[in-house]
Design goal:
Elements lengths: L9 E4 L3 H12 L6 E5 L14 H4 L12 H5 L4 E5 L3 E5 L4 E4 L4 E3 L2 E4 L3 E3 L11 E2 L4 H13 L3 E4 L3 H12 L4 E5 L6 H18 L3 E4 L3 E7 L2 E7 L4 E3 L2 E4 L3 E3 L15 E3 L4 E3 L2 E3 L4 E5 L4 E3 L4 H19 L14 E6 L2 E7 L6 E8 L8 E7 L4 E7 L3 H13 L3 H9 L7
Parallel strand pairs: 1-2, 1-7, 2-3, 7-20, 9-16, 10-11, 10-16, 11-12, 18-21
Antiparallel strand pairs: 4-5, 5-6, 8-17, 13-14, 14-15, 19-20, 21-22, 23-24, 24-27, 25-26, 26-27
Length: about 425
């Protein structure tokens, strides 16, 4: 189905997974109007998850994670790909997008998919050897230092921090993780599962300093030499990786009138304002099933949300095509560490009730086996599995998707046979 061309372009700000999903979904749905895809990096859209794993360990080169090559993107009718270009402001009422170059675009619709920016430590920019990891250039710079070797300190015990620690340790480097939380990944997985993960990291030689704040970086001749903690202790460091969370990339939207409290606030259709949408890490939308706003920083969400945004955008631009659709996925995330995979479904953060149903520590080359449920006093809202086979993972997804009463979800997990674990 070919639709009439709208003279004003659809502007997609952010050329990563979510933005690319919007563009490609519009094409599949038959939209042939002009589309401008704007990315602040000079690189073609690429996958971020491999950066903290395969790229750091040398399995993949930094430039080998491209989502679509130039030829495929060039085949998209009406696509104007702008790389190395920053958005500077958005006039929501007039859908007028201003770029850092001063160029102004009057748009039929705007999709905000600018992702997040990593938090940094004060003074880090004055010392070499201090890294964040968000972009392919970040990964290349960190990989170069890891190959050189030395003591590695990772500041932050979340998903990214623990993946970086596992990668550094797999390269044989002395590695320490410092986290303000009581356990690794505690805000996401709770203290019980976090303790098991910390034990696994220690078993592989990672030193874990939990419940500690970093108060400063020490250096000599412009090179980082150590990390100072709140208890007064000092950890030698030739390489420091700051993985202490990220903030939604919304500074350029200041004064736009959009809801920018923890990302771009949207309704259940991912609409932030008339003909203005948000997708990916930057979007905070109302989830009808969980009856709460969510902002999800995971790869699967970026592509799924981008596809729904394209569908809803099409419905607003033309009377034909698919109808609008609320966005109510079962959130999913995964993390690969030391050869074992953590997989989570639903909502785990902020749960008031957690039950560790199965916990078998790893031994030798054997991965740990963990099953945990998360929720409130009445319902299962999330589930996490480590080292599980597909049949067991399907049960966990069903528990999180169906919002089962707690007792029913617990019974379903306990009924899983040993052969599926």
């Amino acid at each position: 189905m070919i639709l009439r061309t709208n003279p004003a372009p659809v502007a997609v700000v952010g050329a990563s997974a979510a933005g690319t999903a919007v563009v490609e979904s519009l094409h599949r749905l038959g939209y042939d109007g002009p589309v401008v895809l704007i990315g602040d990096e000079p690189h073609l859209p690429y996958e971020r998850p491999p950066l903290s794993k395969q790229v750091l360990t040398g399995v993949q080169a930094p430039g080998a994670t491209t989502i679509r090559d130039a030829a495929l993107l060039a085949d998209r009718p009406g696509l104007d790909l702008r790389l190395g270009v920053r958005a500077a402001a958005l006039d929501v009422a007039r859908r007028r997008l201003t770029l850092a170059s001063g160029e102004v675009l009057d748009c039929a619709a705007v999709v905000i998919a600018t992702g997040v920016v990593p938090r940094r430590l004060p003074g880090a920019d004055r010392l070499s050897g201090v890294h964040v990891l968000r972009t392919t250039d970040d990964a290349a710079a960190l990989r170069k230092d890891l190959v050189t070797g030395g003591d590695v300190v990772v500041v932050g015990g979340g998903v990214l921090g623990t993946e970086v620690a596992a990668a550094a340790r797999s390269l044989g480097l002395r590695t320490t993780v410092v986290t303000l939380d009581g356990q690794l990944l505690a805000p996401v997985l709770g203290p019980e599962v976090g303790r098991l993960l910390a034990d696994e990291h220690r078993r592989h030689g990672v030193r874990v300093r939990a419940g500690q704040a970093v108060t400063g970086l020490l250096g000599a001749h412009g090179q980082v030499t150590a990390v100072r903690l709140a208890d007064g202790s000092v950890i030698p460091a030739d390489i420091v990786v700051v993985a202490a969370g990220a903030l939604p990339a919304t500074d350029w939207l200041a004064g736009s009138g959009l809801d920018l409290d923890d990302g771009v606030g949207c309704d259940s259709y991912c609409v932030a304002a008339p003909s203005v949408y948000a997708a990916g890490d930057v979007a905070r939308w109302w989830h009808p099933r969980y009856e709460r706003p969510l902002r999800v920083e995971h790869r699967m969400n970026a592509s799924e949300q981008g596809m729904v945004v394209a569908r809803n955008l099409m419905a607003s631009l033309t009377a034909s095509g698919p109808g609008r659709q609320t966005y109510e996925p079962v959130p999913y995330f995964w993390s690969d560490q030391f050869g074992w995979r953590i997989q989570g479904y639903g909502v785990t953060t902020g749960s008031t009730r957690t039950e560790l149903v199965r916990a078998v520590p790893g031994s030798g080359d054997r991965a740990p086996s963990v099953v945990a449920l998360y929720g409130d006093a009445e319902r299962v809202l999330g589930a996490v599995g480590i080292g599980l086979r597909p049949p067991a993972l399907r049960v966990l997804r069903t528990c999180a998707a169906g919002l089962l009463p707690w007792d029913e979800g617990l019974a379903a997990v306990r009924a899983m046979g040993e052969g599926s674990l």
